[in-house]
């Protein structure tokens, strides 16, 4: 009996020691858990200004990708910090500096405007902060070695469009494009492709960003086989198409960045006036691959909106970042994250995505057209496509403008 009593006392003592140890260790464990700092990812999206339609879509794409991993990677939580860049270069630059200095982010998704990227690039390079483009990037930022240029550079993205338009039978072209760095690069990339194929660009017009009335520019258009146009956001694109049709001109229209400017809402508004317009796109919701089908279903359930467009840009960008962070074990320092991004290869909704050694994404480019399907105005499945290889980035450069009469 004494031995049984002794065993009970020993067991009771051991139990008390375990409890005391746990009580003593639990604050240390909690303190250790609290020391797991979140990975801070900054976002510069446009919620106001001429490109304000894009902001909510970009945010939805980012959040969907993060929800798929429960806002964590490699054992670290992710904190998203979003600022409104307001379709304004100065605002974007100031907000970028705020994200870097106040919030201590090491990577920023956005902004949209090419001019803003040119302004940000020297500062980002000095601070070693990684920046991603949203819809193609500026060639001039490649040398900074901090810019993730996705899906490619602006002019490389549209260079094949120019060749396509020549192959379609057009021999002369006039262009009308928003007067800012990004759209100038898009327009000139297509012009370079068109002239390299043997065509002639006879006129280029550059309305200001936010132009309230395109009638004077439309009235000044010279006669050509095709009119190539591109502006900052769906509202301006829709206004141009409406006023062009109202003017009664019959020259065929072609466009660029169709996947971002021809949103479902914009197409429903202009309706038949947009039917048949062909253009360059880096994505269409009608792509037939497993990743896209999964994405379309998930983003439609999340937003309640049919026919996703620019949500895909930020969804893919976040998937790239998450893949790179997983490879670094959650280390978001420039020294670890930049090379990890360059080594990233994923299958995205738009197709395969990988990178050149200087940070330019290699992806597919598509030609699509506006069609009516099941009572809705939408972008078609691809009618032509090509991969945008790294050499296109250099070949697309050097357009000097049309020769003077």
Number of helices: 14
**Main sheet attributes: strand count, strand direction, barrel closure:** 10 strands, mixed
SSE order: HEHEEHEHEEHEHEHEHEHHEHHHEEEEEH
Mean pLDDT: 92
CATH first level of the largest domain: which class?
Alpha Beta
> And the CATH topology of the largest domain?
Rossmann fold
- How many strand elements? 16
- Strand fraction: 15-25%
Number of domains: 2
Radius of gyration: 26 Å
Structure characteristics:
Rossmann fold, about 45% helix, ten-stranded mixed beta sheet, alpha/beta, six-stranded mixed beta sheet, about 400 residues
How would you sum up this structure, described in words?
With 405 residues, this protein is an alpha/beta fold. It has 2 domains: 39-153 and 289-363, Response regulator (Rossmann fold, 3-Layer(aba) Sandwich), CATH 3.40.50; 155-287 and 365-395, Rossmann fold (3-Layer(aba) Sandwich), CATH 3.40.50.2300. Helix content is 44%, strand content 20%. The chain has helices spanning 2-34, 54-67, 89-101, 114-127, 154-167, 181-196, 215-219, 234-246, 258-261, 264-270, 290-303, 311-328, 334-342, 390-395; strands spanning 39-45, 72-73, 76-84, 107-109, 130-132, 147-148, 172-177, 200-205, 226-230, 253-255, 278-281, 346-348, 351-355, 361-373, 376-379, 384-388. The strands form 2 sheets. Strands 7, 8, 9, 10, 11, 12, 13, 14, 15 and 16 form a 10-stranded mixed sheet that branches. A 6-stranded mixed sheet has the order 2-3-1-4-5-6, with helices on both faces. A hairpin with a 2-residue loop joins β2 (72-73) and β3. α5 (154-167) packs parallel to α6 (181-196), α8 runs parallel beside α10 (264-270) and α12 (311-328) packs across α13 (334-342). The protein is globular.
């Amino acid at each position: 009996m004494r031995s049984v009593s002794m065993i009970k006392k020993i067991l009771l003592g051991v139990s008390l020691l375990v409890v005391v140890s746990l009580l003593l260790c639990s604050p240390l464990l909690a303190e250790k858990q609290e020391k797991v700092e979140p990975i801070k990812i900054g976002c510069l999206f446009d919620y106001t200004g001429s490109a304000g339609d894009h902001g909510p879509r970009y945010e939805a794409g980012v959040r969907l990708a993060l929800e798929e991993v429960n806002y964590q990677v490699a054992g670290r939580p992710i904190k998203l910090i979003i600022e409104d860049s307001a379709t304004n270069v100065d605002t974007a630059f100031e907000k970028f500096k705020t994200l870097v200095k106040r919030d201590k982010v090491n990577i920023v998704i956005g902004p949209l405007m090419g001019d803003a990227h040119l302004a940000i690039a020297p500062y980002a390079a000095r601070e070693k902060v990684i920046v991603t483009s949203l819809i193609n990037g500026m060639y001039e930022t490649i040398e900074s070695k901090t810019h993730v240029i996705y899906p490619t550079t602006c002019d490389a993205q549209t260079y094949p469009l120019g060749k396509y338009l020549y192959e379609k039978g057009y021999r002369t072209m006039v262009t009308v494009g928003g007067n800012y760095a990004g759209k100038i690069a898009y327009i000139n990339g297509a012009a370079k492709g068109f002239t390299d194929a043997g065509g002639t660009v006879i006129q280029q017009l550059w309305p200001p960003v936010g132009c309230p009335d395109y009638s004077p520019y439309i009235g000044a258009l010279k006669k050509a086989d095709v009119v190539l146009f591109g502006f900052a956001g769906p509202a301006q694109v829709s206004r141009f198409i409406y006023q062009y049709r109202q003017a009664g001109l019959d020259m065929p229209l072609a466009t660029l960045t169709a996947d971002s400017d021809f949103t479902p809402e914009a197409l429903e508004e202009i309706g038949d006036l947009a039917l048949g317009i062909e253009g360059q796109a880096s994505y269409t919701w009608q792509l037939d691959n497993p990743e896209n089908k999964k994405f379309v279903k998930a983003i439609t359930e999340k937003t309640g909106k049919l026919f996703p467009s620019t949500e895909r840009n930020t969804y893919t960008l976040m998937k790239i970042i998450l893949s790179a962070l997983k490879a670094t074990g959650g280390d978001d320092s420039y020294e670890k994250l930049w090379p990890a991004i360059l080594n990233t290869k994923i299958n995205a909704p738009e197709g395969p995505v990988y990178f050149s050694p200087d940070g330019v994404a290699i992806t597919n480019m598509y030609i699509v057209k506006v069609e009516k399907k099941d009572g809705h105005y939408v972008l078609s499945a691809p009618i032509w496509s090509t991969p945008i290889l790294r050499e296109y980035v250099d070949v697309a450069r050097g357009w000097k403008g049309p020769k003077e009469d």
